[in-house]
Amino acid sequence: MKFADRLNNVETSAIRELFKLLGKPGIISFAGGFPDSALFDVAGIKSAVDEVLATQAGPALQYGATEGYQPLREQLSAFMASKGAKDVAPEQMIVTTGSQQALDLLGKTLINPGDKVIVEGPTFLATIQCFRLYGAEVISAPIDAEGVQPDALEQLIIEHQPRLVYLIPTFGNPSGATLTLERRKRVLELAVKHQVLVVEDDPYGDLYFDEAPPPSLLSLSPTVPGSREWLAHCGSLSKVLCPGLRIGWLIADPELLARATMCKQFSDAHTSTYAQATAAQYLQSGVMPQTLARVRAVYAERAKAMGDALRSELGDAVEFVQPKAGSSCGCGSRARVVRSATRASWPNARLPKALPSCRARRSSARIPMRPRCACRSRRLTWTGSARGSRA
Question: 26-40, pLDDT tens digit by residue?
Protein backbone atom coordinates (compact mmCIF):
# COMPACT_ATOMS: atom_id res chain seq x y z
CA MET A 1 0.00 0.00 0.00
CA LYS A 2 1.31 3.44 -0.89
CA PHE A 3 1.00 6.17 1.72
CA ALA A 4 1.12 9.97 1.55
CA ASP A 5 4.57 11.48 1.12
CA ARG A 6 4.06 13.75 4.14
CA LEU A 7 4.34 10.70 6.41
CA ASN A 8 8.00 10.48 5.43
CA ASN A 9 8.64 13.59 7.54
CA VAL A 10 7.48 12.07 10.83
CA GLU A 11 7.77 8.96 12.96
CA THR A 12 5.81 7.48 15.84
CA SER A 13 6.30 9.43 19.05
CA ALA A 14 8.69 7.57 21.33
CA ILE A 15 6.96 9.07 24.36
CA ARG A 16 3.53 7.88 23.22
CA GLU A 17 4.96 4.40 22.81
CA LEU A 18 6.26 4.56 26.37
CA PHE A 19 2.76 5.38 27.62
CA LYS A 20 1.94 1.73 26.90
CA LEU A 21 4.14 0.79 29.87
CA LEU A 22 1.92 2.60 32.36
CA GLY A 23 -0.30 -0.39 32.98
CA LYS A 24 2.57 -2.71 33.86
CA PRO A 25 3.16 -3.38 37.57
CA GLY A 26 6.28 -1.81 39.05
CA ILE A 27 6.89 0.63 36.21
CA ILE A 28 7.37 4.29 37.03
CA SER A 29 7.80 6.22 33.80
CA PHE A 30 9.52 9.59 33.86
CA ALA A 31 9.18 9.97 30.10
CA GLY A 32 5.79 11.63 29.74
CA GLY A 33 4.12 14.54 31.49
CA PHE A 34 1.00 12.64 32.45
CA PRO A 35 -0.74 13.78 35.65
CA ASP A 36 -1.21 11.53 38.66
CA SER A 37 -4.62 9.87 38.39
CA ALA A 38 -4.78 9.68 42.18
CA LEU A 39 -5.15 13.48 42.19
CA PHE A 40 -8.14 13.59 39.85
CA ASP A 41 -11.16 15.10 41.60
CA VAL A 42 -13.34 12.09 40.95
CA ALA A 43 -16.05 13.22 43.35
CA GLY A 44 -16.22 16.67 41.80
CA ILE A 45 -16.30 15.30 38.25
CA LYS A 46 -19.00 12.78 39.20
CA SER A 47 -21.06 15.58 40.72
CA ALA A 48 -20.69 17.58 37.50
CA VAL A 49 -21.70 14.56 35.38
CA ASP A 50 -24.77 13.92 37.55
CA GLU A 51 -25.85 17.55 37.29
CA VAL A 52 -25.37 17.58 33.52
CA LEU A 53 -27.45 14.44 32.99
CA ALA A 54 -30.14 15.72 35.34
CA THR A 55 -30.48 19.21 33.84
CA GLN A 56 -28.77 19.32 30.43
CA ALA A 57 -29.02 15.79 29.06
CA GLY A 58 -30.48 16.84 25.71
CA PRO A 59 -27.82 19.31 24.57
CA ALA A 60 -25.01 17.40 26.30
CA LEU A 61 -25.75 14.21 24.35
CA GLN A 62 -26.55 15.91 21.03
CA TYR A 63 -24.36 17.17 18.20
CA GLY A 64 -22.94 20.60 18.93
CA ALA A 65 -21.39 23.68 17.36
CA THR A 66 -17.89 23.31 15.99
CA GLU A 67 -16.81 26.44 17.89
CA GLY A 68 -17.70 24.74 21.17
CA TYR A 69 -20.44 24.32 23.76
CA GLN A 70 -21.46 27.86 24.63
CA PRO A 71 -21.69 27.38 28.43
CA LEU A 72 -18.15 26.03 28.40
CA ARG A 73 -16.86 28.91 26.28
CA GLU A 74 -18.39 31.28 28.83
CA GLN A 75 -16.77 29.44 31.74
CA LEU A 76 -13.41 29.36 29.97
CA SER A 77 -13.68 33.09 29.32
CA ALA A 78 -14.18 33.63 33.07
CA PHE A 79 -11.33 31.18 33.83
CA MET A 80 -8.97 33.13 31.58
CA ALA A 81 -10.10 36.41 33.17
CA SER A 82 -9.20 35.03 36.60
CA LYS A 83 -5.66 34.53 35.29
CA GLY A 84 -5.30 38.06 33.93
CA ALA A 85 -6.66 37.76 30.37
CA LYS A 86 -9.69 39.88 31.11
CA ASP A 87 -10.66 40.83 27.56
CA VAL A 88 -11.24 37.37 26.07
CA ALA A 89 -14.90 37.02 25.08
CA PRO A 90 -16.41 33.55 24.56
CA GLU A 91 -16.65 34.27 20.83
CA GLN A 92 -12.89 34.83 20.66
CA MET A 93 -12.08 31.18 21.32
CA ILE A 94 -12.92 27.74 20.02
CA VAL A 95 -12.96 24.57 22.09
CA THR A 96 -10.61 21.86 20.82
CA THR A 97 -10.14 18.19 21.56
CA GLY A 98 -7.16 18.82 23.80
CA SER A 99 -4.62 21.55 23.14
CA GLN A 100 -2.88 19.12 20.80
CA GLN A 101 -5.73 19.60 18.33
CA ALA A 102 -5.31 23.36 18.61
CA LEU A 103 -1.69 22.96 17.48
CA ASP A 104 -2.78 20.63 14.68
CA LEU A 105 -5.35 23.17 13.48
CA LEU A 106 -2.68 25.86 13.43
CA GLY A 107 -0.50 23.58 11.35
CA LYS A 108 -3.33 22.89 8.92
CA THR A 109 -4.26 26.52 8.48
CA LEU A 110 -0.79 28.08 8.35
CA ILE A 111 1.95 25.71 7.21
CA ASN A 112 2.81 24.86 3.62
CA PRO A 113 5.47 22.28 2.69
CA GLY A 114 8.87 23.91 2.97
CA ASP A 115 7.77 26.63 5.40
CA LYS A 116 9.96 27.23 8.42
CA VAL A 117 8.78 27.39 12.01
CA ILE A 118 10.84 28.33 15.04
CA VAL A 119 10.53 26.42 18.31
CA GLU A 120 12.45 26.43 21.56
CA GLY A 121 15.32 23.98 21.81
CA PRO A 122 14.23 21.79 23.51
CA THR A 123 10.45 21.78 23.14
CA PHE A 124 7.41 19.50 23.21
CA LEU A 125 8.20 16.59 20.89
CA ALA A 126 4.61 16.15 19.66
CA THR A 127 4.59 19.73 18.38
CA ILE A 128 7.70 19.08 16.30
CA GLN A 129 6.04 15.98 14.82
CA CYS A 130 2.81 17.89 14.19
CA PHE A 131 4.50 20.70 12.27
CA ARG A 132 6.69 18.28 10.33
CA LEU A 133 3.59 16.39 9.24
CA TYR A 134 2.58 19.50 7.29
CA GLY A 135 6.01 19.80 5.73
CA ALA A 136 7.58 22.40 7.99
CA GLU A 137 11.30 22.77 8.55
CA VAL A 138 11.71 23.13 12.30
CA ILE A 139 14.33 25.63 13.50
CA SER A 140 15.56 25.48 17.09
CA ALA A 141 15.98 28.70 19.12
CA PRO A 142 18.32 28.63 22.13
CA ILE A 143 16.92 28.91 25.64
CA ASP A 144 18.32 29.27 29.13
CA ALA A 145 16.81 29.15 32.62
CA GLU A 146 14.80 32.30 31.75
CA GLY A 147 13.31 30.87 28.56
CA VAL A 148 13.97 31.73 24.94
CA GLN A 149 16.73 34.28 24.31
CA PRO A 150 15.10 37.24 22.51
CA ASP A 151 18.21 38.48 20.67
CA ALA A 152 18.91 35.04 19.26
CA LEU A 153 15.23 34.60 18.43
CA GLU A 154 15.17 37.86 16.49
CA GLN A 155 18.20 36.83 14.45
CA LEU A 156 16.52 33.54 13.57
CA ILE A 157 13.33 35.38 12.58
CA ILE A 158 15.30 37.68 10.29
CA GLU A 159 17.28 34.81 8.80
CA HIS A 160 14.48 32.29 8.26
CA GLN A 161 11.29 34.36 7.91
CA PRO A 162 9.26 31.70 9.72
CA ARG A 163 5.56 31.06 9.32
CA LEU A 164 5.23 31.04 13.11
CA VAL A 165 7.15 30.91 16.38
CA TYR A 166 6.04 28.28 18.90
CA LEU A 167 6.80 28.85 22.60
CA ILE A 168 5.92 27.36 25.97
CA PRO A 169 6.76 30.50 28.00
CA THR A 170 5.59 29.18 31.37
CA PHE A 171 7.19 26.07 32.90
CA GLY A 172 8.41 24.74 29.57
CA ASN A 173 8.31 21.15 28.43
CA PRO A 174 10.86 19.60 28.73
CA SER A 175 13.12 22.36 30.08
CA GLY A 176 10.98 23.63 32.95
CA ALA A 177 12.17 27.16 32.07
CA THR A 178 9.93 30.19 32.54
CA LEU A 179 10.20 33.27 30.36
CA THR A 180 10.79 36.44 32.38
CA LEU A 181 8.41 39.38 32.25
CA GLU A 182 10.94 41.49 30.37
CA ARG A 183 11.49 38.78 27.78
CA ARG A 184 7.75 38.22 27.37
CA LYS A 185 7.26 41.84 26.42
CA ARG A 186 10.21 41.63 24.07
CA VAL A 187 8.73 38.56 22.33
CA LEU A 188 5.46 40.43 21.77
CA GLU A 189 7.39 43.40 20.40
CA LEU A 190 9.25 41.09 18.01
CA ALA A 191 5.95 39.64 16.81
CA VAL A 192 4.71 43.13 15.90
CA LYS A 193 8.02 44.33 14.49
CA HIS A 194 8.48 41.33 12.18
CA GLN A 195 4.77 40.52 11.75
CA VAL A 196 5.22 36.89 12.69
CA LEU A 197 2.67 34.81 14.56
CA VAL A 198 3.70 33.72 18.06
CA VAL A 199 1.93 30.61 19.36
CA GLU A 200 1.78 30.51 23.15
CA ASP A 201 1.18 27.00 24.50
CA ASP A 202 0.14 27.25 28.15
CA PRO A 203 -0.91 23.90 29.63
CA TYR A 204 1.20 24.26 32.78
CA GLY A 205 0.71 27.88 33.84
CA ASP A 206 -1.52 27.00 36.81
CA LEU A 207 0.91 24.45 38.27
CA TYR A 208 3.11 26.85 40.24
CA PHE A 209 4.25 25.84 43.71
CA ASP A 210 4.75 29.14 45.52
CA GLU A 211 5.01 32.38 43.59
CA ALA A 212 2.75 32.77 40.56
CA PRO A 213 4.54 33.09 37.20
CA PRO A 214 4.60 36.29 35.14
CA PRO A 215 1.40 37.04 33.19
CA SER A 216 0.87 35.04 30.02
CA LEU A 217 1.67 36.58 26.66
CA LEU A 218 -2.06 36.77 26.13
CA SER A 219 -2.55 38.75 29.36
CA LEU A 220 0.33 41.08 28.44
CA SER A 221 -0.77 41.66 24.85
CA PRO A 222 -2.84 44.80 25.67
CA THR A 223 0.38 46.46 26.87
CA VAL A 224 2.10 45.95 23.49
CA PRO A 225 0.02 47.68 20.80
CA GLY A 226 -0.70 45.51 17.78
CA SER A 227 0.52 42.27 19.36
CA ARG A 228 -2.87 40.62 19.82
CA GLU A 229 -3.34 39.96 16.11
CA TRP A 230 0.07 38.24 15.99
CA LEU A 231 -0.64 35.96 18.95
CA ALA A 232 -2.40 32.60 19.23
CA HIS A 233 -2.95 31.11 22.70
CA CYS A 234 -3.51 27.40 23.38
CA GLY A 235 -4.95 26.28 26.72
CA SER A 236 -5.91 22.96 28.29
CA LEU A 237 -7.62 21.40 31.29
CA SER A 238 -5.61 18.18 30.94
CA LYS A 239 -2.92 18.99 33.51
CA VAL A 240 -5.13 20.75 36.04
CA LEU A 241 -8.36 18.70 35.92
CA CYS A 242 -7.90 15.50 33.91
CA PRO A 243 -6.75 14.59 30.40
CA GLY A 244 -9.57 12.11 29.79
CA LEU A 245 -12.07 14.89 29.06
CA ARG A 246 -9.81 16.11 26.21
CA ILE A 247 -10.71 19.76 26.70
CA GLY A 248 -8.49 22.41 25.17
CA TRP A 249 -9.05 25.77 23.55
CA LEU A 250 -7.58 28.14 21.00
CA ILE A 251 -7.69 31.95 21.24
CA ALA A 252 -6.58 33.81 18.13
CA ASP A 253 -7.26 36.57 15.64
CA PRO A 254 -10.84 36.29 14.24
CA GLU A 255 -9.69 35.43 10.71
CA LEU A 256 -7.34 32.71 11.92
CA LEU A 257 -9.97 31.39 14.29
CA ALA A 258 -12.51 31.17 11.46
CA ARG A 259 -10.08 29.17 9.30
CA ALA A 260 -9.23 26.88 12.22
CA THR A 261 -12.95 26.32 12.87
CA MET A 262 -13.44 25.35 9.23
CA CYS A 263 -10.60 22.81 9.46
CA LYS A 264 -12.04 21.40 12.69
CA GLN A 265 -15.37 20.87 10.93
CA PHE A 266 -13.59 18.56 8.52
CA SER A 267 -11.73 16.75 11.31
CA ASP A 268 -14.19 15.86 14.09
CA ALA A 269 -17.16 18.26 13.65
CA HIS A 270 -16.91 19.23 17.31
CA THR A 271 -15.34 18.21 20.60
CA SER A 272 -17.53 15.87 22.65
CA THR A 273 -20.48 17.91 23.92
CA TYR A 274 -20.79 15.51 26.86
CA ALA A 275 -17.20 16.23 27.90
CA GLN A 276 -17.66 19.96 27.31
CA ALA A 277 -20.84 20.08 29.39
CA THR A 278 -19.09 18.20 32.20
CA ALA A 279 -16.15 20.61 32.17
CA ALA A 280 -18.49 23.62 32.08
CA GLN A 281 -20.44 22.36 35.07
CA TYR A 282 -17.24 21.61 36.97
CA LEU A 283 -15.90 25.12 36.39
CA GLN A 284 -19.26 26.63 37.31
CA SER A 285 -19.29 24.72 40.61
CA GLY A 286 -16.37 26.82 41.83
CA VAL A 287 -14.20 23.95 43.09
CA MET A 288 -11.30 24.46 40.68
CA PRO A 289 -9.29 26.68 43.11
CA GLN A 290 -9.32 23.91 45.74
CA THR A 291 -8.35 21.32 43.13
CA LEU A 292 -5.43 23.44 41.97
CA ALA A 293 -4.26 24.04 45.55
CA ARG A 294 -4.16 20.30 46.24
CA VAL A 295 -2.36 19.46 42.99
CA ARG A 296 0.23 22.20 43.49
CA ALA A 297 1.06 21.02 47.01
CA VAL A 298 1.59 17.40 45.95
CA TYR A 299 3.65 18.25 42.87
CA ALA A 300 5.79 20.67 44.87
CA GLU A 301 6.69 17.88 47.28
CA ARG A 302 7.51 15.50 44.42
CA ALA A 303 9.60 18.09 42.61
CA LYS A 304 11.66 18.55 45.77
CA ALA A 305 12.10 14.79 46.09
CA MET A 306 13.26 14.62 42.47
CA GLY A 307 15.78 17.44 42.93
CA ASP A 308 17.12 15.99 46.18
CA ALA A 309 17.58 12.56 44.59
CA LEU A 310 19.33 13.94 41.51
CA ARG A 311 21.76 15.91 43.65
CA SER A 312 22.50 13.08 46.08
CA GLU A 313 22.70 10.23 43.57
CA LEU A 314 24.10 11.83 40.41
CA GLY A 315 25.87 14.88 41.83
CA ASP A 316 28.09 16.65 39.31
CA ALA A 317 27.25 14.18 36.55
CA VAL A 318 24.15 16.18 35.65
CA GLU A 319 23.09 19.81 35.58
CA PHE A 320 19.55 21.08 36.14
CA VAL A 321 17.58 23.95 37.61
CA GLN A 322 15.34 23.05 40.54
CA PRO A 323 11.81 23.52 39.17
CA LYS A 324 9.47 25.91 40.92
CA ALA A 325 6.39 24.77 39.03
CA GLY A 326 5.06 22.66 36.20
CA SER A 327 5.77 18.97 35.71
CA SER A 328 9.15 18.92 33.96
CA CYS A 329 12.78 19.09 34.94
CA GLY A 330 15.31 19.53 32.16
CA CYS A 331 18.26 17.39 33.21
CA GLY A 332 21.40 17.51 31.07
CA SER A 333 24.45 15.26 31.25
CA ARG A 334 27.70 17.19 31.55
CA ALA A 335 29.31 14.49 29.39
CA ARG A 336 26.81 14.69 26.53
CA VAL A 337 28.07 15.05 23.00
CA VAL A 338 25.99 17.28 20.75
CA ARG A 339 25.98 16.02 17.16
CA SER A 340 24.37 19.05 15.57
CA ALA A 341 22.09 21.99 16.31
CA THR A 342 19.02 19.83 15.77
CA ARG A 343 20.13 16.37 16.90
CA ALA A 344 21.79 15.21 20.08
CA SER A 345 22.65 11.98 21.79
CA TRP A 346 23.42 10.96 25.33
CA PRO A 347 24.53 7.74 26.97
CA ASN A 348 21.58 5.82 28.39
CA ALA A 349 21.19 7.04 31.95
CA ARG A 350 19.65 5.05 34.75
CA LEU A 351 17.35 6.71 37.22
CA PRO A 352 18.71 7.17 40.74
CA LYS A 353 17.99 4.00 42.71
CA ALA A 354 17.28 6.08 45.81
CA LEU A 355 14.22 7.87 44.46
CA PRO A 356 11.65 7.68 47.28
CA SER A 357 9.38 4.60 47.10
CA CYS A 358 10.67 3.73 43.62
CA ARG A 359 9.97 0.04 43.08
CA ALA A 360 10.59 -0.03 39.36
CA ARG A 361 13.32 -2.32 38.15
CA ARG A 362 16.26 -0.14 37.22
CA SER A 363 16.56 -1.92 33.87
CA SER A 364 13.00 -0.83 33.05
CA ALA A 365 13.43 2.77 34.10
CA ARG A 366 16.03 4.04 31.67
CA ILE A 367 15.51 7.45 30.20
CA PRO A 368 14.88 6.79 26.50
CA MET A 369 16.71 8.26 23.56
CA ARG A 370 14.84 10.96 21.64
CA PRO A 371 15.52 10.28 17.97
CA ARG A 372 15.37 13.26 15.61
CA CYS A 373 14.47 15.65 18.39
CA ALA A 374 15.80 19.19 18.67
CA CYS A 375 16.28 18.76 22.41
CA ARG A 376 19.57 19.17 24.23
CA SER A 377 18.35 17.91 27.58
CA ARG A 378 16.35 15.10 29.02
CA ARG A 379 13.07 15.63 30.77
CA LEU A 380 12.13 14.02 34.05
CA THR A 381 8.59 14.37 35.36
CA TRP A 382 7.21 13.80 38.82
CA THR A 383 3.48 13.90 38.11
CA GLY A 384 3.04 10.17 37.40
CA SER A 385 2.43 7.72 40.21
CA ALA A 386 3.03 4.03 40.70
CA ARG A 387 2.71 2.15 43.97
CA GLY A 388 3.06 5.24 46.10
CA SER A 389 5.91 6.83 44.18
CA ARG A 390 6.75 10.26 45.48
CA ALA A 391 8.91 11.40 42.58
Answer: 776 676 778 889 999
